[in-house]
Each structure stands twice: as structure tokens, then as C-alpha cells.
Amino acid sequence: MTDPVSFGPDLAEVFGPSQSDGGPDLVQLLTPEGERVHHPDFDHDFSAEELRGLYRDMVLTRRIDVEATALQRHGELGIWAQLLGQEAAQIGAGRAMRPQDYAFPTYREHGVAYCKGVDPLRLLGLFRGVDQGGWDPNENNFGLYTIVIGAQTLHATGYAMGMQRDGVVGTGDPERDSAVLAHFGDGASSQGDVNEAFIFAASYNAPVVFFCQNNQWAISEPIERQTRIPLYQRALGFGFPGIRVDGNDVLATYAVTKAALQRARDGNGPSFVEAYTYRMGAHTTTDDPTRYRLNDELEHWKLKDPIERLKVYLRRNGLVDQQFFDDLDAEAKALGHHLREGCKALPDPKPLDQFGYVFSEMTDEIREQRDGFAAYLASFELGQSEGAHA
Amino acid sequence: MSTQKITLAKGLNMGLRKAMEADDKVLLMGEDVGKLGGVFRITDGLQKDFGEDRVIDSPLAESGIVGTAVGMALRGYRPVVEIQFDGFVYPAYDQIVCQVAKYTYRSQGKVKMPIVIRIPFGGGIGAVEHHSESPEAQFAHTPGLKVVACSNPVDGYWMIQQAIAHDDPVIFLEPKRQYHADKADLDESATPEPLFTSRVVRAGTDATVLAYGPTVKTALKCAEAAESEGRSLEVIDLRTLSPLDMGPVFESVRRTGRCVITHEAHVNLGMGAEVAARITEQCFYSLEAPVLRVGAFDMPYPPSRIEEEYLPDLDRVLDAVDRTFAF
To answer: What region holds the Transketolase-like pyrimidine-binding domain (chain B) (predicted)?
Structure first.
């Protein structure tokens, strides 16, 4: 074996030391112990009301996730993609958006959907198998869940290019200026579409923020399988800035995403936010993480729980009383009830209706197929069992 | 009434211009479509007149082009995407099949996807690999997409405008060999037929020849040659591949009893197979012979020095017509 030939810079020098805890560039405003720290570039003067609001959002988001997971266990959902542990990343990002901003989700952004005003019950339809996406994306500026990972980052970029053409970028009017938040995960960062989205966004200076929840696992594949460098540092290679934020710190995620969105709204182009977090649950309810990861890792991340640290901070600073927790508990219970009862009441789709969704208007071909199927189904109805088929 | 003589390239260019004038939400996107006017010059002069925001030179990434078009459509635009060559559409295949085709269905009809994906298709231009293919069946097989193929300059002018005005995604196939070949008289004041209709382009009584895109010209030549031998062929330009407009085809085959379909794509699981099956279902008692298909063999597109041997030509189509009579 010969010594390695020198070829370009030493990657360890360029990208820094081991980053298993997020590394030195991790933006944090609230430590896992609930201590408020400050950052020279990203900070925000949170009012007590804002802090209570963020806490409430995370608790309710976790409740949505817990209820949906239970509904799957009870056989009411076919599958559920859990977000446990990623509440801060999603609420921080979701609350940093303005109503005119548009979010493109993967299939796990239940917290962002909640922030955008989508009734959480609507999220269940896809997982129950009653629809493929039960909300109107343009009603809440929240795209439909996208199962092919990374595909939506291109939609986000194209949407942002549309905003540029509509003259809603860089006008200086805060009610008008808009941006797009493109969600994806560490696994999707390997997809061609995500890399193409980076290139298009950079090329056209599109007002899009690429928000990657690096939850360390793509089903069973660890982040090391997707990248040899910290993900946020990839952005520079595409020509825009990347920031790594503590994705379990709702304050930091909010502050960083807010700055990134403002930058985009102002016409200063795309950026990349890597929310460094951890998938506490399984990939979905059909997954078994005990086959591929160690319990120690899970225990380690439990200490960084996004909700717990804010709770500690609120309590320690006297920003909440017992009434607050009691009210929130009642609200979460009501939300759970809404999801449980609502889920079971979601109507099954009608087979004949499906023909009408393929195109903006039914073609003669599809109408003929629908009518044939309708006649076939009708042939089973009482009194029509014979002859209806002829 | 004033007419002008135009090529297919000119017809498409004029049609695109008309569509952009009619609706400022219409955008053109693709590789080299701006200053260069596209490698076939179909978008010639449009960026100069409509600006870089509406005629967008894109990075060289087909999935990126189609994927961003989806986002544009969600924002209310009507993107017209140019895929430079047929064989380059595959990097965009996922976005076309999983996103463009499914978004309306996924949203239970709440979201429209008015995207036109223009693809120069077919062979006969002496090109290298990936520049001569006929991928239509792959898209016609996908629910949620509409697929049309123009065959002449006048149709090019009208059909591209109709496709752009349509609210569903349209794969728009252009026979690249014809771009600069023949001229035809365009009367801009005429009323075009609806987009999703097939058309009898030559009436006949003895056998029906079906074609679309580049093979329409071949079929018409066959009809001329057959006439000199005393045989009358009816030629139908299918024009729309999904949905199919089978009415004129059934009417014709019920009269002639014989049918040959020709396309440049592979016959195995191609458009001809679907058309033949439908004819068999609807015209069974009228048929004097099985429906025959003339198309490509099951091999990748060959080196261009022998492509004329490989492409369906006058002799191979007439041979098939003879076989339907010999049956």
C-alpha cells in the first residue's frame, strides 16, 4: 500500500471534525436542558405568548401523531408516517411562514400542515385509503403529500418561479412578498430531482427555501449512506447558503427559517436549511427500527426532546401556570377525539366517482368505462341479477 | 380568405406565438428554446418578442424542466415544455408519469395540470442514438395523460394551440422528419376540427390504412401507389392516441373489412395492438382479415445508415395490405 497522493484539499479540514452532535455550526437558541442561548446571526425576541404558542403547537402536533399511530394499531389506518421527535423542526418551519408562503411537503409534514390550517383529519384520508390527498392545496397553500421522495422540491422551485413572474418577490410589501418552503429528508437529498431543484433554484434565483429534516435515518439507511459531508454544506456547491439548525430546538428552527424565507421574499434567492433532528419512531408503522439501530442512540436523543426543553424553559421562567397545562391537555384530548371519531366517519370513496377525477373533464373513453362498470355493478342489485349484463 | 404556404416548423412556431398572444400565462420552457430558437427552430424569435420570463432557457435536466413546470401549473401558469429529442424524455419520465399524470386525480379533480410536453419524435434524420425514437405508447398507456401527434403543417398550427388551451396535460408529438419537409396552405381564418379527433385524409373503399405522425405521409403514398394498381385505400390520420377517436375508424373498417395500421414505434404492445383489439371488439363480423401492424422490430433503433430499411415504408405497408387481401 502506498501513501495517498495529494489531490485537492483535505476533506476533514474543509468540512470540520466529527459532527455526530450537529457540529460547531449548529444554530441553537434553546439547549436540551432548556437554557436560552443567543446566536450572533439568528435570533428573535420571543414574547411569552409566542413561546406558549410554539409549545402548544408542538404538543398538539405530537397528539396528532400519537392518535394517528393508535388508529393504525386499531386497524383504522393502513399505515402512518410518524413524526415523533420532529415536532420542533416542523412547527419552527411552519410558524415561520406567512399565509402567502407556500409549503410543499413530503408525507410526514403533519406539523406543517397543522400550521397552514389544514384540518389534521384531512391528513388521515391518504393513510386510511379513502383518498390520495384530501385537501385543496391552493386553499391553504399547502401542497399534497408527495410519496416519490424529492419530486416535490422541483414543484416548489417551479412554484417559486411562478411567484417571480407574478411580481410577488422583492417588492418590499410584507403582505405581498412571498416564498416557498420545500420540505424533504436526508434520504431524498440523494435524489436527482432534489439536486436538479437546487440547480434550477440557483439558476433563476427562485424564492424557495429548501428545508431538509435530517432525521438521521432513511428507513434503515443511516445518514452516512447518503452523504460524506454535512448536508448543509452541499448548498455552497450549488451556489447558495446552507445553515444547520438544531431541529429539536423550535426557537432556533423558527428564527433560521424565518430569516431564510425573508431572504427569499426579498428577492435574494434560495437557501438551504438543514434541521438536524432525529426520527424517534419508526419510518412508518410497518417499519421495525430495532433491526437496524441501537437503543443507545434512541436514549441519547430522548434527552434532546423538543417539547421537554421548552417546557423546562417556560416553567423555570414562570411563563406558564398549571391552568395553561390543564387547558392544553383538554385541547389535546378534544383534538384526539376529533381525529378518532372523524377518522372512523370518513366515507369510503365511491368506485364510480373515481372515473371523474382523472381529467378536468371526463373523456368519452372514460365515461364508457364508467358506464360499463356501473352496469356491471348494477347487475348484482336485487331483481337485476339476470340480463343486465347482456 | 388568404392562405400562406408553411412548413410544419413554421406552423408550430406560428401556433405557439398565437397561444402566447392569447394568454399571458403561457410559458415556453426547455433546452435552447430561447436565443437559439430550439435545435429545430420551432421557438424561433419567440424569446425576442415575449422576453426571457416567458421563453425560458432551462438547465440541461429534463426532470427539472417537467418538475418545475408542475409547480408553474400549480401557480396558474400554462407551461409548454420542449423535450429536445424523444430519447431524452426518460429522465423526466417519473415526473410525467407520477406527477403530471396523477396530480389531478390525486386532488380529486381540484387541481388542473395544463401542461403541454412537446416531443420531436420518430426517425429518418440520420441521427445518432436516442434521437429517432417513438415513445408514444409509454405515455398513451399512462392514465391521466393525453397524447396527440400532428402529421402536417396545418394541423401543427391548430393542434398546438388547442393543446395549450386544454386543461389537462398533453404529450404533443411532432414528426421531426417533417419539420422542414413539405409545405401546405394555411388559412388562419378557418375553423379547426376539435383536438381529440381522428380524420379521414383520403377516402377509399377496399382497405383502411391507419397512421399518425410521420407515417401519415407514408400511408398516403401507399394509397396513391395502390390506386395505380386498381386498389382503393382509405387513409385515416389518428391524430389523437389517447384518448383514441375510434368512431371514424370503425365506420371505415365496417365498409372496407380490411385494416392495416402503421407506426414507427415497435409493434409489440404498441398503439397498433390497442387499435387492433378495439377494432376486433367492435367490427368483428365486418372483418375479412385480421388487422395487421407495420412498425418497428423489437430491437433498439438501428444505426442511421440502415434506418430506411428499418422504418415502415411504402413497400412494407403495401405488402401488409396485400396480405390482408390474401387472407
So the answer is: 6-181
State in words which class domain A18-345 has.
alpha beta
Q: Tally Cβ neighbours within 10 Å of residue A207.
A: 30
Q: Which residues of B are catalytic?
A: 131
The shortest CB-CB distance from A154 to any of B67, B76, B110 is to B67
Each residue's pLDDT expressed in tens, for chain A with a length of 390 residues: 677 788 887 777 777 665 667 888 999 999 999 999 999 999 899 999 999 999 999 999 999 999 999 999 999 999 999 999 999 999 999 999 999 999 999 999 999 999 999 999 999 999 999 999 989 999 999 999 999 999 999 999 999 999 999 999 999 999 999 999 999 999 999 999 999 999 999 999 999 999 999 999 999 999 999 999 999 999 999 999 999 999 999 999 999 999 999 999 999 999 999 999 999 999 999 999 999 999 999 999 999 999 999 999 999 999 999 999 999 999 999 999 999 999 999 999 999 999 999 999 999 999 999 999 999 999 998 765 554 444
- Nearest-neighbour CA in chain B from A204: distance (Å): 9
Domain boundaries, chain A: 18-345, 350-390
C-alpha cell at A90: 416542523
B70-84 burial by CB neighbour count: b if 16+ within 10 A, else e?
A: bbbbbbebbbbbbbb
Pick the CATH number of B3-187 from 1.10.150.20, 3.40.50.970, 3.40.50.12780, 3.40.50.150: 3.40.50.970
Q: Which helix (H) or strand (E) holds A340?
A: helix A322-345
Q: Which of A36, A74, A292, A367 is catalytic?
A: A292
Please check whether residue B260 is in contact with residue B294, taking contact to mean a CB–CB distance below 8 angstroms: yes
A46-A47-A51 Cα angle (round to 5): 75
CA distance A212 to A253: 11
State the best of A155, A210, A365 to mutate against chain B, taking most chain B CBs within 10 Å. A155
ipTM over 0.95 threshold: yes
Tell me whether A347 touches chain B (CB under 8 Å): no
Instruction: Tell which CATH classification among 1.10.230.10, 3.40.50.920, 3.40.1350.10, 3.40.1650.10 matches the domain B199-326.
Output: 3.40.50.920
Partner-chain contact A151 B94, CB within 8 Å: yes
pTM for this structure?
Answer: 0.96
Q: Do A192 and B74 touch (CB under 8 A)?
A: no
- Does A16 contact B at CB distance below 8 Å? no
Q: Is A192 on the interface with B (CB under 8 A)?
A: yes
